[in-house]
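hi!! sorry for the late reply, been swamped w classes. u asked for the two structures so here they r. pasted raw, havent cleaned anything up. first the sequence of the first protein and right below it the tokens
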Amino acid sequence: MTSAVVFAYHNVGVRCLSVLLAHGIDVKLVVTHEDAAGENIWFGSVRALAQEHGIPVVTPADPHDEATMVLLRAAQPDFLFSFYYRSMLKPAILGIPRRGGYNMHGSLLPKYRGRVPINWAVLHGETESGATLHEMVEKPDAGRIVDQMPVPILPDDTAQDVFAKVLVAAEIVLHRALPALIDGSAVLRPMNLQQGSYFGGRKAEDGRIDWSRPAAAIHNLVRAVTHPYPGAFSDLRDGRLVIWRTLPTAERGAPGRPSLFAVDGHLVVRCADGVIMKLLAAELNGVPLGADLFRVRFGGAELPLTA
């Protein structure tokens, strides 16, 4: 029986571990994370799935600590798989499996190597993303590609919408790639790193809106960081405005200073490029803000917006 050790977290970890089990892989050990205090845990538990199947689970702060290394060596796995595990794995671990280590990445590599690839793709207005199974090497997201599958990004898709599509793509990619990996017939193709770029992680502060940007860029930011992420925001004189959902319209005025106002029952922004954008969901200091409340708080005047 083919054996593996699995490093996994998040929904991709849950679904891809499920695929391994469905293919009869003998999973010797699962390495996952403790849920971070204060994080919005909106995804499934790899640990719970592993425990349901009687698979040993460890949650080391550092997967390279001696106790974990002892367990990994003792497992003597054929393969190592990493599914949305958040820590980089060094050569000391990658050298343990007899038949190599493979990672599932949430982009069409070599594009969007690195952290939070789906959020970055939405932020940049991409029209597709996908899932890529690739060989793990010392350099992150740089090993040969086993298989990949694209998914569309629609103009109003949020990062969570796209993640749901990538989740299914990841399951399909792993399901169809496993037989060839197991029997040794898989043909891997080298990755041309010059055709893509590497991106780092994002912080809540990165959601601050630069109102000098065009409406399309602001719309992309909002949908890239909306729920379950912290949201796009702007600090007004009356507090913090958090925008959860937007819709650019065909209406266009003269370019100029951005402003927030209410019209025809809608809360809207006139963006710097003149495009009128509806705010479909917004909060001011944690209180839902619509056209009626805006008029009560600010009257009929337009509220200037600054970066």
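now the second protein. again sequence first, tokens right under
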Amino acid sequence: MDLEVVAFLILSGLEVGAAVMTVTAKKLVHNVFWLAVTLITIAGIYLLFLAEFVAWIQIIVYAGAVPVLFLFGIMLTRRKIMEEPHESQ
């Protein structure tokens, strides 16, 4: 098999695994992390297709800005989610 095919299969497997983890993770912060991993692997697939501009836009806009906006939204609107439950003694 060609090296590009092997790289595509590896990136595709990582993308599908990260997408499944995005949907099944229990905590919102973990969901955002796996979403970023999914978007970065998509950018890697764009690089394999020789679409460098689209790959950089994918990394800068989607993998960079969207998870940061999600995290700010989580931190500013739902403060109880970020706090761990502690036992009162």
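hope this helps!! also noticed smth abt the second:
The two ends are 63 Å apart (CA to CA).
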